[in-house]
Amino acid sequence: MLSTGALRAHLLAARLAGPVATSREVSLRSYRLFAARDPRVTLGLDPERGWGERELLELMADRCGVSDDPAHVSGPDVIDPERTVAGLDAFAVRLADAAARRAPVLFGTGHPHRLIGFYAALADALSSAGCPVLTPAQGRCIDITTRFGVRTYNLDYVRGVALVREPGAGVAGGGTGAHSHSPLPVRVALEAAAAGCGPVPELVVGDHGWVCGAGQLGIEAIGLADTDDPALFVGEAEGRVSVAVPLDDAVRSAYYLPLTRYVLNRACLSQ
Question: Do residues 222 and 211 touch, judged by C-beta distance below 8 A?
């Protein structure tokens, strides 16, 4: 069992919390874009009310531990490790509840290069606990607007975790896929699940558009979010995201392994 103290030390050593790689400039830019309801950062969430830049900064200070000083405009951003630990504890509670109910679960990530291992271990544990881990719409083509224009991606699953990949980019079911913020993949997956003969997910686990897109549609969603992802924390504040865990979502994949062990132990899902 990884102790809370050991986890906190790991978060700081791996720069998952404390001073992180995400810059203050990038975070503030995201808050400006979110305040303007730019879909690149709302991630499928339709906020219930207007959020100004100052309100977003105060929210992110409360939920993540970033500085609430608007005059602080440069340097690395900061995540409070205590808030990360508290988020992981709440995350584990939701997983334990899903396992107790044997609820159907959908996993999806826009950070496959970094987070596939984290989510896949959780998917394995929930599957062993009797939860159906869903893979709807596998192979479906999705047109996603990117900074390079509209690109077509294929929805795929690796070890039970959804991702998107460019056509021809590796073998289906293998590789790591593309980085994506879009909510379109989760909408396609949920539509396919609802239209099929199998269950629809009662819980969506992931990041970016997977969490916000599911939460916007009224499905319980939990996930990980960096300081430049205000949408998940707004969704949490407005009651459409159950848990948003503040941490750097783009460090080396191996650095998430202790978090996996901690969450599974807290959820009583260790194998």
Answer: yes
Burial of 257 (0-12, 13-18, 19+ CB in 10 A): middle
Over the chain (271 residues), the average pLDDT of each successive run of 10 is: 93 98 98 97 96 98 97 97 98 98 98 97 98 97 88 96 84 72 97 91 98 98 98 98 97 97 96 63
Cα distance between residue 159 and residue 171, in whole Å: 14
Report how far residue 87's alpha carbon sits from residue 110's, in angstroms, rounded to the nearest whole number. 20
Amino acid at 45: L
**Beta strands across the sheet bearing 203-207:** 141-146, 149-158, 161-165, 105-108, 203-207, 220-225, 243-246
User: What three-state secondary structure class fits 258?
Assistant: helix
Q: What is the pLDDT at residue 69?
A: 96
Dihedral, CA atoms, 94, 98, 101, 105, nearest 10 degrees? 150
